[in-house]
């Protein structure tokens, strides 16, 4: 499956997160890799694993990246 389609499937219903991801990373492949990679800021979970239970945690992490806060 192409990166674009997989990203669309994962982010169905999360339009703001998708727009922010593509704004930051520009390429579907890179955005998908970020979404699937575990993050220490999410207690070792991948952002994709938090989309349904805690989308606000994913949004917060993306907002921190946009502001240059990588802690």
Write down the domain tally.
1
Report mean pLDDT, rounded to a whole number: 93
Order of helices and strands: HHHHH
Our measurement of the CA-to-CA distance between the termini, rounded to an integer number of angstroms, reads: 33 Å
Give the % helix: 55-70%
Pick out the low-confidence regions. Answer: none
Helix-strand makeup class: mainly alpha
Our count of helices gives 5
Shape: globular
Instruction: Report the C-alpha radius of gyration, rounded.
Output: 11 Å
Total strand count, please? 0
> What fraction strand?
under 5%
Described by strand count, sense and barrel closure, the largest sheet is: none
Give a structural overview.
With 71 residues, the chain is mostly helical. It has one domain (3-67). It is built from five helices and no strands. It has helices spanning 3-10, 15-25, 28-36, 47-50, 55-67. The mean pLDDT is 93.
Which characteristics define this entry?
mainly alpha; globular
Q: How would you sum up this structure in a few lines?
A:
The protein has 71 residues and is mostly helical. It has helices at residues 3-10, 15-25, 28-36, 47-50, 55-67. It has one domain.
Helices and strands in order, then pairings?
Layout: H1 3-10, H2 15-25, H3 28-36, H4 47-50, H5 55-67
Helix pairs in contact: 1-3, 2-5
């Amino acid at each position: 499956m192409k990166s674009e389609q997989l990203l669309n499937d994962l982010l169905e219903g999360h339009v703001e997160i998708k727009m922010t991801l593509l704004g930051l990373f520009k390429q579907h492949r890179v955005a998908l890799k970020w979404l699937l990679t575990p993050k220490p800021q999410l207690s070792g979970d991948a952002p994709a694993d938090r989309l349904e239970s805690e989308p606000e945690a994913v949004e917060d992490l993306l907002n921190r990246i946009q502001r240059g806060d990588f802690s």
